[in-house]
Amino acid sequence: MSPTFAQLDAGGRLRHLLTLEGLPRGLLESLLERATALAARPGHGPARGEALEGSTLVNLFAEPSTRTRASFEVAAVRLGGDVLNFDNTLSSRVKGETLLDTVHTLLAMQADFFVIRDGEAGVHERVAREVDRQAAVVSAGEAHLSHPTQGLLDAMTIREQKGDFGQLTIAIVGDIARSRVARSAHQALRTLGAREIRIVAPRAMMPEAAEFAGARRLDSLDDGIAGADVVMMLRIQHERAGSAGPVDLADYHREFGLTAARLARAAPKAIVMHPGPMNRGVEIDSDVADGPQSVIRRQVANGVATRMAVLEHLAAARRARAG
Ligand code: CP
């Protein structure tokens, strides 16, 4: 996102959510509080609301997704909104229509929220500038750069499971250089005051020195997770061009796969996270992914509540600005 583009309005509310970079701690905390209040509890029905009644959310995904796209749809429906899952491959984009013409076509049908995933950096801001007064844009993933609602749901899950960020050592492990999940998690956790953030990656997957300010860098999994309270595993981003080159998956598993034996090096009650999709037997073994320390399915559940909290906030901000 360019430094001149403001995500916040004059009242400090979000106009759009494109990145967690630069958002105030109080705003992140209020979104986490609301998401926690909305989260479905065992034995209770899912939270519902009316914040999106009369509104239409368009899922505009140019890259594959299971969790993010489905959870935005569930979140919008639970808030009383209508959802259009736009299929690029069956749309007039394949006949040459530009993205902005597509967005204006959907705006003419009264779209209020555009949830966008795109592999090209800058697309989200371009759309946000175009629709600024008429609709809100939420990033569902931008290239390798950001995935803000994933960062929020990860932070929510860590707070729910482990409490005060100031007491926690959090290891983010894997293909960090090409991971938007790692960037957004780092931005959220740094703002929220995590005691220690470690990025743990083979050298070929380590990001540039200027990125991940304040984080410790380790290129050994055993050292990287030693004593950690939270171990967040990431998959290899084979689909993104970058420096890692072809990877021998058996070698990778031997050096960077999270096994039960390796997990024993983390703190005794450490939680294991993964944003999904997982590649079992590569970055994580099934007995860890499905084991008692795993909170991977809880992350998915919290994704719905987090996206409800974000949509509620954006809807309230739009109403406030409209007077
Ligand atoms: N975590 C995540 O973004 O998953 P999807 O690609 O399935 O949406």
Task: Give the strand order of the largest sheet, numbering strands 1, 2, ... along the chain.
Answer: 7-6-5-8-9
CATH architectural arrangement of the largest domain: 3-Layer(aba) Sandwich
**Residues in helices, as a percent range:** 25-40%
End-to-end separation in angstroms reads: 28 Å
Q: Structural class, please?
A: alpha/beta
DSSP summary, beta strand count: 9
The CATH topology of the largest domain comes to Rossmann fold
Residues in β-strands, percent:
5-15%
Detail the poorly predicted runs.
Answer: none
CATH class category label of the largest domain: Alpha Beta
The radius of gyration over CA amounts to 19 Å
What is the number of independent domains? Answer: 2
Oligomer state of the chains in this structure:
single chain
Instruction: Please describe the biggest sheet, giving its number of strands, its sense, and whether it closes into a barrel.
Output: 5 strands, parallel
